[in-house]
């Protein structure tokens, strides 16, 4: 089988009884992202809706890096192992799948950008004109006929189309005969891409009229169509959704009834819950070194809603933000909310390597990109997440509008490194009775983290955090905590030149007040004018967990 690029081209017509939201939620949150998690096969995934009055109404296209991949188990098992939900939805859709080899491409070099590199805002509404030319059966194996046809495409047809205002790119494909059903007629497919603002005509009864005065049929046009082409069809579509490897469609999910909740099997790593219009979506992304990072998105289901992301501390999960997120959803319903588990919570890649702040910032950038978030409205992080937040602001300023960094320091010391090594020894120590080493570390850690007021007046809060810390992966802790060894965000000019507006927050009892002094000492070094520091009373190292109302008071104006 040939090793060259091509396309998987899928047309779909849902049955009238299949609710549109159910169709889109399945495709956007299960079907499409599953394929985009195979970047060695699929470089993009795009969804279009017809703008003409023809059916099928929906089109999905996937650029394929090499068509031979579509005959490998990596791809074929996707279809063989459909979830029960997918099988039920697919049974209600008339689906036609086509395989095409890429034959030629012409771009408008001045303005063309691949759709997957654009933001959703930039990409939505681009126009696709899909033209199929079915080759006469007696010319299917006639190489001279193909040369004549392709010469016409290159010398006359595509140059004419490229003169239409708003033209971006034309690609020519041909049926991949080694993948298609033998009964499939040999077809040339032309995909003409246009900007939203274009010179296409509304008169689209035939293809030439669609291009207006830019396209004037010639004698050569007539000869090719009469002697080589048996059927010519054209369709017009508007782009409405671009896949990433991370499910993100809260809008469709919010329109479903609660009985349409979905849990992937057997791993349960993807969960979609309509929650009576207040949807929650849990899934994962894969980092460049192969680690799965779980995340959860919720809040405003509008795809254009601004997103606030949260980066948790070492040893905790994204559930440490639960109470604060509840307040945020209550008081600021305009936001979409993104949480994720820092590497080391569940595992580290094999072979394990120590984490760095650069690596943690890159993980978040990978997640933001996979979710196709153009720019975070805000990033809030605490402890190691606080250091990650500042590092992210310095390394990826174009992805962030503002940040809140809490209970951290901009540099570590030899004493800090020694303390982390002692904690690793506790976590890896033999169990005492039914208490493994990581559980011993949890008790010690929470007593050190929390304010005395929390320990005495809110024992249930301390107990919940002890459970959360005790559930951490031991090897994950060993290698992720090393991100806090020997780092110094003061090195280089980046911190002083930070352009992203920031706010620092700290619990008044963190380190018995020592961290308040430390953060007061470096707040003037962030950006040209420094940043403000706010102190949460009766809170220690995790003020948003110990005193969510107090923390909300500290940050609500800034957010």
TrEMBL record:
Gene Ontology molecular function terms on file: hydrolase activity
Domain of life: Eukaryota
PANTHER family the record matches: MONOACYLGLYCEROL LIPASE (PTHR43798)
Keywords in alphabetical order: Hydrolase
InterPro entries referenced in this protein's UniProt entry, alphabetically: AB_hydrolase_1, AB_hydrolase_fold, AB_hydrolase_sf
Gene3D superfamilies: alpha/beta hydrolase
Domain AB hydrolase-1: start-end pairs: 318-553
Organism: Coniella lustricola
Alphabetized Pfam families for the sequence: Abhydrolase_6 (PF12697)
Designated name of the protein: Alpha/Beta hydrolase protein
């Amino acid at each position: 089988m040939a090793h060259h690029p091509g396309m998987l081209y899928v047309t779909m017509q849902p049955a009238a009884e299949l609710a549109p939201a159910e169709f889109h939620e399945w495709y956007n949150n299960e079907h499409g992202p599953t394929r985009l998690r195979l970047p060695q096969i699929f470089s993009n995934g795009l969804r279009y809706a017809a703008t003409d009055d023809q059916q099928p109404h929906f089109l999905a296209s996937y650029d394929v890096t090499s068509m031979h991949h579509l005959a490998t188990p990596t791809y074929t098992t996707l279809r063989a192992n459909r979830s029960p939900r997918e099988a039920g939805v697919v049974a209600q859709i008339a689906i036609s799948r086509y395989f095409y080899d890429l034959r030629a491409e012409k771009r408008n070099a001045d303005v063309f950008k691949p759709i997957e590199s654009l933001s959703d805002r930039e990409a939505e509404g681009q126009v696709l004109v899909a033209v199929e030319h079915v080759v006469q059966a007696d010319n299917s194996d006639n190489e001279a006929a193909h040369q004549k046809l392709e010469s016409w495409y290159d010398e006359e047809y595509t140059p004419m189309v490229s003169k239409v205002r708003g033209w971006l790119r034309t690609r020519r494909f041909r049926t991949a005969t080694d993948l298609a059903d033998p009964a499939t007629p040999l077809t040339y497919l032309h995909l003409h891409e246009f900007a939203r603002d274009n010179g296409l005509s509304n008169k689209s009864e035939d293809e030439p009229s669609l291009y207006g005065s830019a396209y004037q049929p010639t004698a050569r046009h007539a000869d090719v169509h009469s002697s080589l082409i048996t059927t010519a069809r054209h369709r017009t579509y508007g782009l409405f959704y671009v896949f990433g490897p991370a499910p993100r469609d809260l809008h469709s999910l919010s329109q479903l009834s609660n009985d349409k909740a979905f849990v992937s099997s057997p791993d349960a790593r993807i969960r979609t819950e309509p929650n009576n219009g207040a949807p929650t979506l849990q899934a994962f992304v894969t980092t460049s070194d192969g680690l799965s990072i779980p995340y959860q998105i919720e809040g405003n289901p509008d795809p254009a809603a601004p997103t606030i992301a949260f980066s948790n501390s070492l040893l905790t999960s994204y559930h440490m933000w639960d109470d604060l997120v509840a307040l945020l959803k209550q008081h600021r319903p305009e936001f979409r909310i993104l949480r994720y588990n820092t590497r080391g919570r569940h595992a580290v890649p094999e072979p394990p390597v120590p984490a760095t702040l650069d690596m943690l910032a890159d993980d978040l950038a990978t997640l933001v990109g996979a979710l196709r978030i153009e720019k975070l409205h805000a990033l809030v992080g605490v402890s190691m997440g606080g250091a990650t937040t500042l590092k992210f602001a310095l390394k990826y300023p174009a992805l962030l509008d503002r940040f809140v960094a809490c209970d951290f320091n901009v540099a570590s010391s030899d004493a800090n490194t020694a303390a982390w090594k002692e904690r690793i020894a506790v976590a890896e120590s033999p169990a005492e009775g039914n208490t493994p080493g990581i559980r011993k570390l949890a008790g010690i850690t929470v007593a050190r983290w929390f304010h005395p007021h929390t320990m005495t007046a809110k024992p249930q809060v301390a107990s919940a955090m002890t459970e959360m810390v005790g559930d951490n992966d031991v090897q994950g802790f060993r290698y992720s905590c090393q991100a806090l060894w020997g780092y110094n965000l003061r090195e280089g000019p980046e911190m002083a030149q930070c352009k992203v507006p920031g706010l620092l927050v700290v619990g008044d009892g963190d380190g018995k007040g020592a961290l308040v002094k430390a953060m007061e000492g470096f707040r003037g070094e962030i950006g040209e004018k420094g940043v403000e520091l706010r102190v949460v009373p009766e809170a220690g190292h995790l003020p948003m967990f110990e005193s969510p109302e107090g923390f909300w008071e500290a940050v609500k104006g800034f957010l």
